[in-house]
Design a protein that fits this description.
The chain is an alpha/beta fold.
Length: 375
C-alpha cells in the first residue's frame, strides 16, 4: 500500500515537474529569439553604417559607362593620366612657361589668369600657360593616395613629360594656391618663380598663434567649422559628412552665395562661361574631387608654410601672395601673418577685393607682370 501510494505521488510529481519544465522552456524561447534578433539588427546596422560611409567607386575616363576622353593627357609613372589645356604662344616659342593650378571645385578650363590675360602681354612676354585637371577632377584620373606632397611631385613629373625645361613658373588660385606651398617645399629647384592667389589656409598649421587660428576658424559658418574638423580629424568620414541630409554640409560644396563679397557678386557675370564646362568638374565623382580636396587642404600636413626657407636666396626668382581684404572664403589675417614672418614673400593686399578678384579688369596682367618683370 505504501509502495503504491509512493508510485502515485511520484507520477504526479513527475507530471508537475514536466509541466514546470515546459513552462520554463516556453518562457525562455522568446527571450532567445529576441537576443538573436537584436544581434542580427546590430550587425545589419553596422553593415548599413559601413556602406553609408563608403564612397562609390570612382569613374575613370575612357572606360565603359564613364565620360569620354576629349583632352590631351600626360601619363605619369604610376599609370595615372593628367588632362591639360594650353594657352598663349606655342610652347616651343615661349620665353616664359607657366603652370596654372586651379582651385576647389574647378578644372583645367578655369585657368582665370590665362583666360583674362591681354593678348599684348602674352605676345610681348612670350607667355605659354598650361592648366591641368588636378587628380579626380575633369578628365584626370583619381589618386586614392593623394597628399599635398604627391600633388607637387605630380606637377614636377607633368612638367618634365610636357617638356617645359629645367625651370617653370607656377601660379595657383585658392586651393591651387595652397598647393603652391607644397611645390615650394618639395620641388623648389624646378621653380623659376611662384604666385599664390588667395591661397587657402589650414587652421592647424604649426607656427600660427593659437589666438589667430581660433579667430579665423570661428569666422567660418558653423557648418564649415564642422566640415573642416571632420576633414582634419576623421577624414575617412568626409564622404558621409558631405553626402548625408540630416544637417548642412560644406557651404563650398553647396556653392553658397553667402561666401561672396560685394565685389565677388559684381564679378560673377564674368564667370558665365563656366556653364559650358561645369558638368565636367565633378564627373568622376564628388568624393574623388571636392571631398579629397577638403582632406588635402585641412588634413594633417608634414610641414607648415611658416617653416619654409627662401627658395630664391640670390633673387633669381620671386614668390608673391595676392589677397583681397574682403575675402569671405580665405581669411586675410593669416596671409598677413605669413607675409610678416616670411620677409622674402612679396605680399600684395587689395582693398575691397573678395575671392574672385582675378576676374577684375587688368588684374591678370598686373599679377603676371609682377612675377615676370618684378613690377
Amino acid at each position: 500500500m505504501a509502495i503504491g501510494t509512493s508510485k502515485r505521488i511520484s507520477a504526479a510529481s513527475a507530471r508537475a515537474h514536466t509541466r514546470r519544465n515546459k513552462k520554463t522552456n516556453s518562457s525562455n524561447l522568446p527571450s532567445g529569439l529576441l537576443g538573436t534578433a537584436i544581434i542580427v539588427l546590430f550587425i545589419g546596422f553596422l553593415f548599413g553604417a559601413y556602406q553609408a560611409i563608403q564612397p562609390p567607386p570612382p569613374k575613370i575616363c575612357g572606360t565603359p559607362g564613364a565620360p569620354p576622353i576629349t583632352a590631351p593627357r600626360i601619363k605619369l609613372r604610376d599609370g595615372r593620366n593628367l588632362a591639360y589645356k594650353e594657352h598663349g604662344v606655342p610652347k616651343d616659342a615661349a620665353k616664359n612657361k607657366i603652370i596654372f593650378v586651379h582651385g576647389f571645385d574647378s578644372c583645367r578650363h578655369d585657368a582665370y589668369i590665362a583666360k583674362t590675360l591681354s593678348p599684348d602681354v602674352v605676345e610681348d612676354l612670350g607667355i605659354y600657360i598650361v592648366s591641368f585637371d588636378r587628380p579626380g577632377y575633369g578628365e584626370s584620373d583619381p589618386d586614392p593616395n593623394q597628399t599635398g606632397k604627391s600633388l607637387a611631385l605630380d606637377i614636377e613629373e607633368f612638367a618634365a613629360k610636357l617638356g617645359l625645361g629645367p625651370k617653370f613658373y607656377i601660379i595657383g588660385y585658392s586651393l591651387g594656391g595652397q598647393i603652391v606651398w607644397n611645390c615650394l617645399k618639395y620641388i623648389p629647384d624646378r621653380l623659376a618663380g611662384a604666385v599664390l592667389i588667395a591661397p587657402a589656409v589650414n587652421y592647424w598649421w604649426s607656427g600660427l598663434p593659437a589666438n589667430l587660428s581660433s579667430e579665423v576658424f570661428y569666422q567660418q559658418k558653423l557648418q564649415d567649422q564642422w566640415t573642416t574638423r571632420v576633414a582634419h580629424y576623421i577624414p575617412w568620414l568626409t564622404y558621409w559628412w558631405n553626402s548625408q541630409r540630416w544637417f548642412p554640409a560644406s557651404s563650398l560644396i553647396l556653392q553658397s552665395t553667402d561666401l561672396l563679397s560685394v565685389q565677388d557678386k559684381e564679378l560673377m557675370p564674368k564667370r558665365a562661361d563656366r556653364n559650358n564646362h561645369v558638368a565636367q568638374v565633378r564627373q568622376l565623382g564628388e568624393h574623388e574631387s571636392v571631398h579629397r580636396d577638403l582632406n588635402v587642404a585641412f588634413g594633417k600636413w608634414e610641414f607648415s608654410p611658416l617653416d619654409l626657407q627662401n627658395p630664391f636666396p640670390t633673387n633669381e626668382g620671386s614668390v608673391h601672395i595676392w589677397q583681397g581684404d574682403d575675402d569671405l572664403i580665405v581669411p586675410v589675417q593669416v596671409q598677413r601673418y605669413i607675409a610678416q614672418n616670411l620677409p622674402w614673400i612679396h605680399y600684395h593686399e587689395l582693398q575691397g577685393a573678395g575671392h574672385l578678384f582675378p576676374h577684375a579688369d587688368g588684374m591678370s596682367d598686373t599679377i603676371v607682370k609682377s612675377l615676370l618683370q618684378g613690377k
